[in-house]
Amino acid sequence: MPDSRTIIAHQFDDPVQQHESSMLGMWVFLATEIMFFGGLFAGYTVYRVVHPAAFEAASHHLNLVLGALNTGVLLTSSLTMALAVRSAQTGKQRNTVAFLITTMLLGAAFLSIKGLEYYQKYTDHLVPGTSFSFPGPHSHGAEMFFYLYFAMTGLHAIHMIAGIGVVGVIAIQAAQGRFTPAYYTPLEVTGLYWHFVDIIWIFLFPLLYLIGSRV
Amino acid sequence: MNTEPTPLLPREHYLSGQYGVKSWLLTTDHKRIALLYLVSVTLFFFLGGIYAALIRLELLTPYGRFVSDENYNKLFTMHGLVMIFFFLIPSIPAVLGNFFLPLMIGARDLAFPKINLASWYIYVLGGIFTVTAAVTGGVDTGWTFYTPYSSTYSNSAVITMAMGVFITGFSSIFTGLNFIVTTHKMRAPGLTWFRLPLFVWALYGTSLIMVLGTPVLAITLALVGLERIFHVGIFNPAMGGDPLLFQHLFWFYSHPAVYIMILPSMGVVSEVIACFSRKKIFGYKFVAFSSLAIAVLGFLVWGHHMFVSGQSVYAGMVFSILSFAVAIPSAIKVFNWTATLHKGAVIYQTPMLYSLGFIGLFTIGGLTGLFLATLGVDVHVHDTYFVIAHFHYIMVGGAVMGYMSGLHYWWPKITGRLYPESWGRLAALIIFIGFNLTFFPQFVLGYLGMPRRYHTYPPEFQVLNVMSSAGASILGVGYLLPLIYLIWSLRYGPVAGPNPWRATGLEWQTSSPPPTDNFLETPMVADEPYNYEDMDSA
Amino acid sequence: MWRTLPLFPEQASTVAGAVDKLYFFLIAVSAFFACLIFALIACFIVKYRRRPGHERAIPTETHIGLEIAWTGIPLLLTVVMFIWGAKLFFNDYNPPTNAMEIFVVGKQWMWKFQHPEGRAEINELHVPRGQPVKLTMISEDVIHDLFVPAFRVKKDVLPGRYTTVWFEATKTGSYHLFCSQYCGTQHSKMGGWVDVMEPADYARWIDGPGVNEPLAVAGARLFQKFGCAACHLPEGKGQGPSLVGVFGRPVKLTSGATIEANEDYIRETITHPGVRIVAGYPPIMPTFKGLVGEEGMQQLIAYIKSLGKEDGAKNPDEH
């Protein structure tokens, strides 16, 4: 329920209109993000159809342990984000801030693990370019796989970095008492964004790490 | 038209409220932001026009005397990029849409005013990258950036330019996002969807395309940039990449983009035809749904740019039939506008002249699109001047004339002043004549086989090229006139009053210029749109 | 006057007339609807102009029948246009089986035409009248496009894979050939001529002085030089599959899929042997990327095409 602390921007008539507009705005933005990643998913589809065996072979060179660990980290961060929203809904400011900070830390952990993976690929000569080396008949398609791997996870990482930044800003605002059970819209839309970035990873993980069997 | 006593400018309005550079550069008022856009798109229009003038000058002779091959290639590339991304796409939405969407729905502003301002700054930043690209060697890839020429072979400022387009794309996305949320959530009480002006429907369809299509262009250009920098990529055949993948991704946005460029003009035409025939638009719902149909179908036809690209014959057939389908809603609009004139009370003011011109020229442009959708014929005319003529009929004969129509129609509301009517009519006539002389010969040139993007051409094509260039000089004069008299009218034009055209629509129920918050009181809507019956019996 | 102001291109191929007929149909339909709309508008804006005594519009109600009519009739017309256009298009993709095959290489900023009998040309293509000609084309760099307006044919020329276009010239003469996919600085100068000759003249021309050896013979030499003969022995005796009679036939791959052994497959195998390997054979073929240029590729393809044919080049052992 709206209360006197809720700020209504001047273009809106009432808090409900403001809240619905913000939510719709974020959903539309997420639709644009799907289209943005969509180009890469389209490229991935094309080349996987053309080089199925090479993609499978290349996929097995990805570190499944780190990838799975990262998946767990990101899913947990979505949990903490959802709990942050829930805490704001129930007026628990300290918990809100704590959950937001935890979300940021988990995000940073994700990026660190990713960075480690990237470094491993670099030392294994699996970064596309002049130093790329993939012995065997699948070198051609494998280089394409790794190009897409870096492009897709790289774009995802950029979105994570932006997300951590935004969550940081929201955490500060939460610590300053900006959110009440009547008004926590910025936190809610940030949550939507964070969950979206998580879902993108849920698609990337099987497409990149789980091609074929590793047995 | 106005039989009331001479109107006075309102005491306070959105232009008078605050003064100074900061009040403009940090404004969140959608009307001021619209004017910021007006100035910027006008600058880019004339920049693009200069490129066009140089092109037509060079094409007066078959052998290319004024500029080198390389520079000519840069001229047509920059002409296309500037006109498409910095004029046609933003013009009506960011100028007229920004100004009038909130007014037409009875709102105080758009849903996200700060994002609106951000979108202008992003546009300007993209523009800076573009101008930088132009002065640091230009770009010579064609506005279509086909790989591997753009990703590997071109020795020009491709990355700078790609960044410019990439950045400006976000301006487009933010505008579209703002419009969608505003239309859904901020309509005045009583303003149901089917009471909305058709301009709003047109902007809504446009916004859907802007938000869903532009990101695909963004990622595609980013990939081209990566390929250029790191020499690895998915479009490079040397790496087993497919240059056709680029074409599919590129056209997936760029075809719907042309509907971004034309739908808003169609919206303007609906408003103007209704007002200047004093009748509601015939078949309102059909016109409204056509806007949506064009937006949706527009996403399904991109392969018609690739009939001879080496894509499969079956893909060609699918895209051909869908391309015919997307023509139908446009035809429906043309028929409905024509039917609106029937039994109307037609007034020949400048906005109406431009809108009537739009219908004529868009009809020709649209019909020639059918030629291009027809597979067997497209093989012959693809990548020739036939295509150039086709899209200029739509973009210039259609979109720009729609923009001019809207600009003149709403000029009194925006500025509080009337433009000089005789000059308006004269300019419209000059533009119409100049336009046809410029572009009709190009249909003939195209079927004869003159390819596009040609700096030099066989001498037998010269006469038609000279005709086209002559037309272009007339067209140029036609565009300069409004620049002069519209600016003149700001000081010397007669005061317009709130509703000089006696038009329906909420924007006319407030002062000219409007107050900063648009309405003194939130309007209530109980009426069907375009109720000229009541308006004229009052 | 037509020399200085041509308004219509010549018809010099078997399909030109058909394309023009469809074009005229489209013009007729377009002219009809354009004139209809213009006439109605002109009529309405004059007849219903606002003037003293006619100050107000007469409201008209939506007429669903009219909406259906002007939706349905254009829709039907577009279906006709589609079918007619698709038929012509399909024809473009199906060269006659007796078509004479010529290889084309496009590169910035010239065209190289290679007749299988050995004669090579730059920017000018001689062909006989009345004989279908199939061009198998590839680019050495960026995307180009081969366009002959008088024949009404056009096809993009891509790097990395072959595209084809075919025509049958019906009139002798010289016709413009243009590159019509923007390809860089000298795009507009990357043109030439197609010279259509009487068959007898062409037969004399093709055996003219200074002619190189036939493609297939050159290909046989390359086949030896690069060591292909060592593995690709006939009757499957070698480590690689036999190539006798393989061209144009379906080939089963290790992945289980089947592919037609056409120009593209041969080219891909020579440059990237690991991508699609014939079932039952080990992945040991080395790559010849960078060693075999586009001309060499044409020669090898011509040679492989000739294997197993009665009049083809001889088996390398017998050469």
Short description:
Chain A has 215 residues and is mainly α. Chain A has helices at residues 15-50, 52-59, 64-89, 93-123, 139-175, 185-209. Chain C has two domains: 1-59 and 95-210, Cupredoxins -  blue copper proteins (Immunoglobulin-like), CATH 2.60.40.420; 215-318, Cytochrome Bc1 Complex, Chain D, domain 2 (Orthogonal Bundle).
Description:
The complex is a heterotrimer of chains A (215), B (538) and C (319). Chain A is 76% helix and 0% strand. The mean pLDDT of chain A is 93. In chain A, helix 1 (15-50) packs parallel to helix 6 (185-209) and helix 5 packs antiparallel against helix 6 (185-209). Chain A has 6 helices and no strands. Chain B has 16 helices and no strands. Chain C is an alpha+beta fold and 319 residues long. Chain C has 2 domains: 1-59 and 95-210, Cupredoxins -  blue copper proteins (Immunoglobulin-like, Sandwich); 215-318, Cytochrome Bc1 Complex, Chain D, domain 2 (Orthogonal Bundle), CATH 1.10.760. In chain C, 33% of the residues lie in helices and 20% in strands. Chain C is built from 7 helices and 12 strands. In chain C, strands 3-2-1-5-8 form a 5-stranded mixed sheet, covered by helices on one side. A 5-stranded mixed sheet of chain C has the order 4-10-9-6-7, covered by helices on one side. In chain C, helix 1 (16-47) runs antiparallel to helix 2 (64-92) and helix 4 crosses helix 7. Residues 311-319 of chain C have low confidence and may be disordered. Chain A binds chain B through residues 9-13, 17, 20-21, 24-25, 28-29, 31-33, 35-40, 42-43, 46-47, 51, 128-130, 132, 140-141, 143-144, 147-148, 151, 155, and chain B through 102, 107-113, 173, 177-178, 180-182, 184-186, 211-216, 218-220, 223, 226, 230-234, 239-242, 245, 248-249, 517, 522.
